Amino acid sequence: MKMDDVETPQSWQKAAYQRFKQNRLAIVGMTILGILVFMALIGPLISGYTYYDLQLEMKNQPPSLQFWFGTDELGRDLFTRVWYGARISLFVGITAAIIDVAIGILWGSIAAYAGGIIDEVMMRIADILYALPYLLVVTLLMVVMGSGLIPIIAAMTVIGWITMARIVRGQILQLKEYEFVLAAKALGLGKRRILFRHLLPNALGPIIVTLTLTIPSAIFVEAFLSFLGLGIQAPVASWGTMVSEGLAALHYYPWRLFFPAFFVCITILSFNLIGEGLRDALDIKS
Amino acid sequence: MLSYFCRKLSFNVATLFVIVTLTFFLMKAIPGDPFTQEKALPKEIHEALRQHYGLEDPLALQYVRYLSSLIQWNLGPSFTHSGRTVNEIINSGFPISALLGLEALAIAICLGIPLGILAAAKHNRWQDFSILTATAIGSAAPNFILATFLQYLLAFKLGWFPIARWGSFMHTVLPALSLAIFPAAFIARLIRSNMIEVLKQGYIKTAKAKGVAPLIVFFHHGLRNAILPVFTYLGQLTASILMGSFVVEKIFSIPGLGYWFVSSITNRDYTVIMGITVFYSIIMLSALTLVEIAYGVIDPRIRTYNAAIA
Amino acid sequence: MKMRLLQVFAIINCFLMSGCQFSNEKPSSHHNSHTVRLSIPDDPQSFDPRFVRDLVSVSSIHMLYEGLMRYNAHGKATFALAESVDISPDYKTYTFHLRPSIWSDGEPVSAYDFEFAWKSTLDPKIVAPNANQLYVIKGAKAAKEGKISLDGIGIHALSPKDLTVELESPVPYFLDLAASHFYLPVNKKWVEAGSQTKDLVSNGPFKMQSFKHHNEFVAIKNPLYWNAHAVKLDKIMMQVVDETTGLQLFQTGQLDWHGSPTSTLPADALQTLKAQGQLEILPGAGTHWIRFNTALSPLQNVKLRRALTFAIDRKSLVGHVLQGNQVPALAIVPPSLRLQDKPYFEDHDIPKAWALFQDALEELKISKDEFPTIALCYSQNERNSRIAQTLQQQWKKAFGIEVKLENCEVKVFYDKLARQDYQMSLGSWFADIEDPMNFLQLFQYRSNSTNNTQWENAKYVELLNKSTQEIQRDKRFSTLRQAEQLLIVEMPVAPLFYASFNYVKKHQLKGVYFSPLGFLDFKEAYFDMENEL
User: Fold this and answer.
1) With C378 labelled, which of A17, A18, B12, B245 sits at a CA distance of 20 to 30 A?
2) Inter-chain contact B229–A264, Cβ cutoff 8 Å?
3) From CA A40, how far away is CA A45, in angstroms rounded?
4) Non-local CB neighbours of C310 within 8 Å, separated by 6+ positions
5) Chain A: residue nearest B14 by CA?
6) In this predicted complex, what is the ipTM?
7) C245 contacts chain A (CB < 8 A)
8) What is the pTM of this model?
9) How do residues C486-523 score in pLDDT, each as one tens digit?
10) In Å, what is the CA distance from C79 to each residue of C58, C63, C227?
11) Is C295 in contact with C420 (CB distance < 8 Å)?
12) Which of A133, A171, A250 faces B228 most closely, judged by CB atoms?
């Protein structure tokens, strides 16, 4: 460490960014994600097929030079469909996860920090939402909003934020009694500042873990909804729907399951690695 | 302590009441009723059926009628499965789902916690990386994928376990595993994340310097502080895992309660929907209350109830 | 503490593994040649023949009960509890003479049991979904509507052994009706005691042994059955499993029958099963079609509806998408009912379709580019989804038009259908009785709960009413044919394909009657162990 570095103190965020860039796991994760996004954008364009053209005589073909990932039950090129589906899954998964996380963090931390009656009521609202039969809520949403990506994201975020809220609340409840908080209070720092600049950063570990595990949930909740007629319309398919439909064909045409499932796995792995990198980078204790 | 309990209880009851009311009106708001079907019934018969079951009465009346029988824990008859009462359905299905759920929880905890601790202890070494990868893959496989896959591979192809149905310990292994993997991954990551923080804390070094065996410190102080989010997660998970998973029970033909969760809604079997929701809510609220108490036990500094009184 | 955790875990494990069985069920692949195990998706809904509609229940009802007539293994209605019958020359009065037989509680079965069962179905105070199946009987409909008392119905038990039935109009096929589950007797004492499933009193070849809900229903041979010596099976077990698991159980010898009529085979398995020679196929008395909402533009135009219908490539649909040897439907009534002598139109007739489409555009005064997007609605399941996507593509290729797909949750779909809130929708009908009228009358009146196309035609109504007065089968069928022709000309529904039953069963299992109406009769079933393959 050179003397110059010590004399020009970097801001907390810049330091984190530097650490992130140097974290090997995070780099790997970002690279994989980058490749996936890239393929999602150009994949359907380079294959020479569309995601909706049926060629019934070519149904259920294994991977070959003509169809790189094989064909599905209606003779559509699986390569194109996988990358078209990537757009849906990535978009829906990430958007739903971000919304869930945002609401969850705000809700949980405010409830925990405020304490008392506010905490009780806020968490009760979460309990009520969680206890309502999810399928009922979603069916009603779909009847009212119709089908499409927005209704699906709404359906997924309606209770998806609750786990995050509870976990954040638990952490904040624990942290707010620590000495550094008492010290901050004694210094006269405002509530909002304490919450966002001191408490939350210390709760980052579980937050990031929950965030990285919310994304696969989002992908598969969407598949579950489609299964029951509450998701995106055919012939559009997301990875989740392709995996569900491919499961039934596991015995006979395993590539229909393998390819979407493989990429779902890779996506989640990459998010996990990025999450790890974030956690290490934002760890202000080291 | 007693006043705390009473407060929690009354809040729970109030929450339950709101859940019942919301579910009731939500359920009546969606199109379709128990008798709509593909082979459409002649209109007069459809109406006669609705009349017979009181579905033509004003909603408020139906609601009050339901509440009064609910208080006596009479959950009513099923609309679509004639001859069965909701109480019967819950009584026969719940023990099975709960047994499976407990087994899954046990697996998730016994797998998740040690792996999470190991990963944290060996942070940035190969054990950590492999556990990270394993949990990533574990989280990428929701229970229905695992269930189908395990059934196909281990039961159908290799014959190590029964393919489906219920009756012995061997029948529970694959379904319990399918249910346990995602929670195990979540738990492992939560523990690992917090333990990594804990291990960086000064007091471990202090304890070492004092001569206290590091392992004791590790578990007594470290785990205690790190385990809180696991309790939070488990509290929420317990109720849903005990009520059974629709897909896993369907794939393995297990006569539990999970099937009713989804089918009652697709069938618009009103009484079953209400009964299951009420039952589930009671379990969930109880679990969450226990978690609140556990917070106070794990970390006495947490004073959720004191703050309310203060 | 880690060690302690491990110890605890190990102890729990040992405890659980100590051969702890929680039921007496032994999953065995060792096959018992007198037990049939079949798969069902859900429990039988009811054991009272008056209230049963779903196929699983109908099959169980036929196991447990015996009526005046019964279909034998070759599909012919033969005498069961009725020893003989006197039929009036005008086919309007049937007098059945019963043989001696007893209920499972030891009491004799009498004509009064039949009278009780049928009249209670027609009682306006009792909500019986199948009441309309008895409307051929004189006064039945009027009694159900409360216009006359139950005594005015043409059902009279003259003595414990003799039952007379008077019909509204001539019904030459009444003996076939008498073999259906709508005409079974019910034990009055059992009904008055509350119709508890566990106390079921029945009189059929099998009786209920146990019913574990959403798990398994077991019936065993009924020793008190009048024809017990003809029954070769000892036990029938119906097990609740889903389609994929069921196939795996069948392939490992743990099920003897999987698929239609009580359950379904996974669509993706059909091709392989067919190639292996394992798939059994039977034509079913059902038709799948597309309903058009004839009140909404642009579908109110007949030429457009016909154009859309003619453009469909049904051969491709059944060959590639359905793969169960379904037959392309070029009429409404399935061929097994033998109504048509020749098809009414050609499959995938693009030239005709295109010409009609052009005419339609002219009549609607729009150009092809202005053609609106029409929506095809269906209830979400794998098969419907595939059919819809194929149709969408076929119409795009034929006319260049956009069809939007709308999948709906099941009950939401039926609700939309009932309110006619759709443009085109997938639908089907399965016969209740093997008669063309069962299909044609679906569309007789606009207000029929089975119509939903907003189509009604005075001539059609007239033809159908005329057919009910004709005694001679040929004349009656000729009138019905004219009605069907009219339906095809107007095309409020576009026929797609006729139903086909797909199932797998153990080769040795024989003597099972598989009704085109979708139920199984095991009375004469047996395992032929000598010719084991």
Assistant:
1) B245
2) no
3) 9
4) C345, C346, C348, C349, C350, C352, C353, C356
5) A124
6) 0.89
7) no
8) 0.89
9) 999 999 999 999 999 999 999 999 999 999 889 999 99
10) 20, 16, 12
11) yes
12) A171
